[in-house]
Design brief:
The protein is an alpha/beta fold. It is built from 6 helices and 4 strands.
């Protein structure tokens, strides 16, 4: 299933709205990236995408990427240094399990949205929105790669 067809336009918009809502309560940044295939380890690919999207350039290093390779059934959650060192052991695995449990039921949008809420709540706890002039540093749109090269 091509990543562009993995979610309907309405589902994509619901996820973007979930990201917008989460980011209104935190200085953190959340991105979703979908692509068809992932050669090798999905966490390594998520690391690469994280950097390609400029997520390592946020002021507080508190960006979180939820990465999904739709056809290979692989996923990963990758976080910037600022948030990664602050969360408790197993937190990222818990977020990943939310994705996996929903994806097994073919509830793709619900899984991503629930993962966004969990990440957003943690970002709000650790990096609450309190600075006047805090900017949304990154796009909230879902990024895609079709792996046709």
């Amino acid at each position: 299933m091509p990543s562009r067809q993995f979610l309907s336009e309405q589902e994509e918009q619901q996820i973007v709205e979930a990201i917008n809502t989460a980011e209104q309560k935190t200085s953190g940044e959340i991105r979703i990236h979908l692509e068809h295939h992932c050669e090798g380890d999905p966490l390594n690919r998520a690391d690469q995408v994280f950097h390609n999207l400029g997520m390592d350039e946020t002021k507080l290093q508190n960006g979180v990427l939820i990465y999904v390779a739709t056809e290979d059934h692989k996923a990963a959650v990758y976080a910037g240094k600022g948030i990664h060192r602050e969360v408790e052991e197993g937190f990222w695995d818990d977020v990943l399990q939310i994705l996996i449990s929903h994806f097994k039921q073919e509830e793709f949008e619900q899984g991503i949205e629930e993962a966004v809420h969990k990440v957003g709540n943690k970002l709000e706890e650790l990096f609450p929105y309190h600075q006047k002039g805090d900017l949304d540093e990154l796009s909230n749109e879902i990024s895609f790669r079709d792996n046709k090269n």
